Amino acid sequence: MGDGVIPLQPLARYSDLLREHFEHPRHVGTFAEDDRTVGTGWVGAPTLGNVIKLQIKVTPLGVITDVCFKAYGGVAAIALCSWVSEWLHGKTLDEAATMDNTRLAEQLSLPALEIQSAVWVERALRAALADYQRKASPTAR
């Protein structure tokens, strides 16, 4: 394999959906953190190789209209962020709060050894929801 080609065998253990979101991630980017309509969740442990920034943009009626993320980590973390960013579009804050790591892992058939990535994504979502609610509260104005 001296021709610079990286074998895809390590990806073979993942579901087709997970591979699709890893190879073609959706909604990668950032929003301005000081925007009151944006909730930002930062989580991770750089020493362990995972850092996630997940952002949601929310209407005054509490509907998520846009989502973006930046993820530094493994295949599962990137794919899970991409998938959840699509799932969140059009959801209310209450609907978004129902997502948890078990459901994330099930949706993408995540290998058991990589459940921690789903935990990180859930924590990022919870942090983004909390940040938005803090900014939207009457006392934050």
Gist?
The protein is an alpha+beta fold.
What would you say this structure looks like, in words?
This protein has a single domain, classed as Sufe protein. Chain: A. The protein has five helices and three strands; from the N terminus they run αβββαααα. It has a three-stranded antiparallel beta sheet with strand order 1-2-3. The longest helix has 22 residues, at 115-136. It is globular and about 50 Å long. A hairpin with a 5-residue loop joins β2 (50-58) and β3. The protein has 141 residues and is α+β, with helices and mostly antiparallel strands.
Give the integer mean of the pLDDT values: 91
Q: Summarize the helix and strand pattern as letters.
A: HEEEHHHH
Write out the strand line-up for the largest beta sheet, numbering strands in chain order.
1-2-3
Secondary structure tally: strands = 3
What is the CATH fold-level name? Sufe protein. Chain: A
Biggest pleated sheet:
3 strands, antiparallel
